[in-house]
Each structure stands twice: as structure tokens, then as C-alpha cells.
Amino acid sequence: MTPPTMKALSKSQAQVGIWMTDQPVPTPGPNDLLIRVRKSSICGTDVHIYNWDAWASQTIPVPMVVGHEYMGVVEDMGSEVRGFSVGDRVSGEGHITCGHCRNCRAGRRHLCRNTLGVGVNRPGSFAEYLVIPAFNAFKIPDDIPDDVAAIFDPFGNAVHTALSFDLVGEDVLITGAGPIGIMAAAVARHVGARNVVITDVNDYRLDLARNMGATRAVNVAREDLWTVAQTELGMTEGFDVGLEMSGNGAAFNQMIKTMNHGGKIALLGIPSAGVSIDWNDVIFKGLIIKGIYGREMFETWYKMAALVQSGLDLTPIITHHYGIRDFQQGFDAMLSGQSGKVILNWEQ
């Protein structure tokens, strides 16, 4: 008997692009879920893979199905799985951890040194079906729509970063108005920050940030950040919390310069090369700097659901929808820089 096949977007060649392919439907192991994917979202990581940049060429096995932002329904499950039923709406934690290292055994799975990424180190979710460990699946509450559930992975990056420090009543600087930075701005306002300032050089993305609740969106190619903070917002001492989302060395340096003494910085953006900073500012200001990778398992996921259920509206960040047959248009939208999150529908 011929094994069943499915449609999937694969990195089939070591060059720019992504291709629709036929792949075998994966079989769940005893502790796995088989998920029928309804909607996928395109991540910045997927754009790196599409462009086949230096990181992608050194990281991604070819050929492989890629993608890691999605929602779907449980189609089948292994014999040892408990707590799920066929038909459950789910998304999933894309970091598959080992379970036996010191951090895993201490409940700090987001710090697992042996992490494998869905769609990066193992087959991904740009497909009609995906298999992941049931441990990694997260049930989607009924009152959270499919589109929002499909972006829970990047939303989790924003939540983990933004909630690393107390934001209530604080002045927050976010450098980098990509979708994750914009969602972090929305989170910061929702949980009680006083001023939320976001910087970038992309006017389209800065407008999205304004719509999502940023107090002030600053195009640093035309405006001086600290002048805006002083003259428009009445700030005199500097920002209390910084969320670095850009991976841009100049943005990180500007953040350090404008932080208040005792300020706290969470770093999510990944620089493409080494970044030089003035460590005297870090030392004499007594700054605290924390690196962020992924989402806390699974505290971040519960906070994500609770934020949406308590009124945080993520829908403005979702700017484009395409049926899966038009996947190239979706990638073109992401590549243009004139988009927020792009959703691909596997049922169209």
C-alpha cells in the first residue's frame, strides 16, 4: 500500500526560495500528537531560511519541511498520550527539549542546552500535518480565534521578553518595531507601563506600533530619541526598562545611553555580527542585562492566553492572509517589510 502523502513547504535546495512538495504524512510515536495544521504564520526565521543567508546555510538541513508558527487540531495521538482528545485545538512549543539535562530536570526547560527547533533542526509546521511530543502541545481556549493562536509562538517571545521585569508605572524603551517588538509594546501598555516608546526606521511598522498602543513611535533616522522623551513625554532621568528586539548594534548602544541608573534590559534581538558597547555605561549605571531565548515552558504560554482573554487585542498585527497555494505572495509580503504577521491558510 502506498503511504499517504501531504502538501508541505520545504527547503528543497540550498539557494534562495521555498518550494511546495509532497511529503509522507508523519506517524506519531507513543508520546506524540499528530496535528492537522489549519493555519501557519511566517516568521522572521523563515525569511532567513528563504533567503538562505549565512545563518541558514550553516543551520538548516536540506531538504526539510520548515516553519514553526501554527495552530491546528489533534488528528491522532500515541498510545501513551494523556490529557488530549482528537479534535482539540492546539498550538505548540517549537523548542523540543531533552528532559534530562540539569535545567530540564529543574523545570527550566527554556534553558535546555540540547534544544531542537521545529522547522529548524527537525521537520516543521509548513505542512498539512505535524508530529510533536504531546508535552509540547498547548490547548487553545475556545475564546481565542485561530488567527491569534497561529501567532502564539512569536507572541510568546514578546511576552517572555516584556514580562522579564516589572513594568507597572515604568518608562519602557523598545528598539526594533518588527512584529515581536510591536506585540511587546502592546503587552507593556496592557500590564501598566507609563510610557512605551518604540524605535525603528520603517514607517509602516512604526504605524502598526502606534495602532497597537505605543505611546510614541520614533523614526530614529529623522528624530532624536532622547529629545522626544524629554520634550514630549517629560522624562528627565532615562528609561527604566529596555526591550532590545532589533539585533542592531546602534540601537542597543542608544538604549544603553538612554537608560536610567539601575535600569533593566532584556535582549531578544540577535545581532548578525559582534556588537561593541560602552561597558562603562553598563557598570556605572548599574544596568541589569538579561538574554531571552524562546518562551518559558509553559508559564509564558499560560500568560499569553490570559493576556488575550483579559482584553489584549493582537488582531492589528495580522495584516495579510493567503491561501496556502499563494504562499509566495505571503513570503513576498514579509520580504517587502510592509507587513505585520502573515497568515497562510491550509484549508484554502
UniProtKB/TrEMBL annotation:
<feature type="binding site">
    <location>
        <position position="112"/>
    </location>
    <ligand>
        <name>Zn(2+) 2</name>
    </ligand>
</feature>
<feature type="binding site">
    <location>
        <position position="200"/>
    </location>
    <ligand>
        <name>NAD(+)</name>
    </ligand>
</feature>
<keyword id="KW-0862">Zinc</keyword>
<feature type="binding site">
    <location>
        <position position="104"/>
    </location>
    <ligand>
        <name>Zn(2+) 2</name>
    </ligand>
</feature>
<dbReference type="InterPro" id="IPR011032">
    <property type="entry name" value="GroES-like_sf"/>
</dbReference>
<dbReference type="InterPro" id="IPR013154">
    <property type="entry name" value="ADH-like_N"/>
</dbReference>
<feature type="binding site">
    <location>
        <begin position="268"/>
        <end position="270"/>
    </location>
    <ligand>
        <name>NAD(+)</name>
    </ligand>
</feature>
<feature type="binding site">
    <location>
        <position position="101"/>
    </location>
    <ligand>
        <name>Zn(2+) 2</name>
    </ligand>
</feature>
<comment type="similarity">
    <text>Belongs to the zinc-containing alcohol dehydrogenase family.</text>
</comment>
<feature type="site" description="Important for catalytic activity for the proton relay mechanism but does not participate directly in the coordination of zinc atom">
    <location>
        <position position="153"/>
    </location>
</feature>
<feature type="binding site">
    <location>
        <position position="180"/>
    </location>
    <ligand>
        <name>NAD(+)</name>
    </ligand>
</feature>
<keyword id="KW-0560">Oxidoreductase</keyword>
<feature type="active site" description="Charge relay system">
    <location>
        <position position="48"/>
    </location>
</feature>
<comment type="function">
    <text>Catalyzes the NAD(+)-dependent oxidation of L-threonine to 2-amino-3-ketobutyrate.</text>
</comment>
<dbReference type="InterPro" id="IPR004627">
    <property type="entry name" value="L-Threonine_3-DHase"/>
</dbReference>
<dbReference type="InterPro" id="IPR036291">
    <property type="entry name" value="NAD(P)-bd_dom_sf"/>
</dbReference>
<dbReference type="InterPro" id="IPR013149">
    <property type="entry name" value="ADH-like_C"/>
</dbReference>
<keyword id="KW-0479">Metal-binding</keyword>
<dbReference type="Pfam" id="PF00107">
    <property type="entry name" value="ADH_zinc_N"/>
</dbReference>
<dbReference type="GO" id="GO:0008743">
    <property type="term" value="F:L-threonine 3-dehydrogenase activity"/>
</dbReference>
<feature type="binding site">
    <location>
        <position position="69"/>
    </location>
    <ligand>
        <name>Zn(2+) 1</name>
    </ligand>
</feature>
<feature type="binding site">
    <location>
        <begin position="292"/>
        <end position="293"/>
    </location>
    <ligand>
        <name>NAD(+)</name>
    </ligand>
</feature>
<dbReference type="GO" id="GO:0008270">
    <property type="term" value="F:zinc ion binding"/>
</dbReference>
<feature type="binding site">
    <location>
        <position position="98"/>
    </location>
    <ligand>
        <name>Zn(2+) 2</name>
    </ligand>
</feature>
<keyword id="KW-0520">NAD</keyword>
<comment type="subunit">
    <text>Homotetramer.</text>
</comment>
<dbReference type="GO" id="GO:0005737">
    <property type="term" value="C:cytoplasm"/>
</dbReference>
<dbReference type="InterPro" id="IPR020843">
    <property type="entry name" value="ER"/>
</dbReference>
<feature type="active site" description="Charge relay system">
    <location>
        <position position="45"/>
    </location>
</feature>
<feature type="binding site">
    <location>
        <position position="43"/>
    </location>
    <ligand>
        <name>Zn(2+) 1</name>
    </ligand>
</feature>
<comment type="pathway">
    <text>Amino-acid degradation; L-threonine degradation via oxydo-reductase pathway; glycine from L-threonine: step 1/2.</text>
</comment>
<dbReference type="GO" id="GO:0019518">
    <property type="term" value="P:L-threonine catabolic process to glycine"/>
</dbReference>
<keyword id="KW-0963">Cytoplasm</keyword>
<dbReference type="Pfam" id="PF08240">
    <property type="entry name" value="ADH_N"/>
</dbReference>
<dbReference type="InterPro" id="IPR002328">
    <property type="entry name" value="ADH_Zn_CS"/>
</dbReference>
<dbReference type="InterPro" id="IPR050129">
    <property type="entry name" value="Zn_alcohol_dh"/>
</dbReference>
<protein>
    <recommendedName>
        <fullName>L-threonine 3-dehydrogenase</fullName>
        <ecNumber>1.1.1.103</ecNumber>
    </recommendedName>
</protein>
<feature type="binding site">
    <location>
        <position position="68"/>
    </location>
    <ligand>
        <name>Zn(2+) 1</name>
    </ligand>
</feature>
<feature type="domain" description="Enoyl reductase (ER)">
    <location>
        <begin position="17"/>
        <end position="344"/>
    </location>
</feature>
<feature type="binding site">
    <location>
        <position position="205"/>
    </location>
    <ligand>
        <name>NAD(+)</name>
    </ligand>
</feature>
